[in-house]
Amino acid sequence: MFFIPLFSSNLVTKKIGHRIEYLRSVDSTNTEIYRMLQNNEIQPGDIILAETQTNGRGRRDNQWYSNPGESITCSMILEDNDSLLIKKLPLISGISIIKGIKQLTNIECDLKWPNDIIYNAKKLGGILIEKKGNYFIIGIGLNVNELTLEKSIKESTLSLRLILNRSIQREPLLAFILNHFENSLNQSLEAIIKEWESFCAHMHTSINFRQSNKLISAKFLGLNQSGEANIKIGTEKKVISSGAIEL
Hints:
- The chain is of the alpha+beta class.
- It has 2 domains: 4-199, Bira Bifunctional Protein, Domain 2 (BirA Bifunctional Protein, domain 2); 206-246, Roll (SH3 type barrels).
- Helix content is 28%, strand content 32%.
């Protein structure tokens, strides 16, 4: 069970997360939260959290696995009322998770572009951001208390419990993440980019970049002023806004 009073007692936001809808099972939290918005059941700033997703989605249509009572699998919805929001969200989503984990557990995680949460090059969590009409939906999947992981991903993923060898309270962790998220929304894009780069696991290092099923060797140079990735392929510099990086 997710103990909502414990979550709420650690939440210090002004707008985000003050209403949280707790669901045992749902097809996808991103799909469900937009469905609820259309039915006037929730408002921007609200959160839904599910113990199980029957059709959980990650980036690039990958499946996202979640174990009941162990993961944080949630979505929030925000109104697109800021021209910079589309540039800020992919960056502050990852930053806030990194800072929330650090605050609760003292674990120092890294970011893999654009917003994968990693520890020792293994994935702890990811973010799926979708634009629906005049709204952004931010889906978060984070491995927290798993002792066993899905066979197909266990070599490349971790959970916080496997790192610390103890269980972690999900309620304050999610509250801390949302606290940092709302605080970051008010920062300048320039400051957000600088902070994102400070958490990046592959700044100025060689990477493999996958785009259109083609794997390209490149060097990651950081972010440009719009939050897109600068890479160098041979002697040519390129800007990328989508695709997947492999370390």
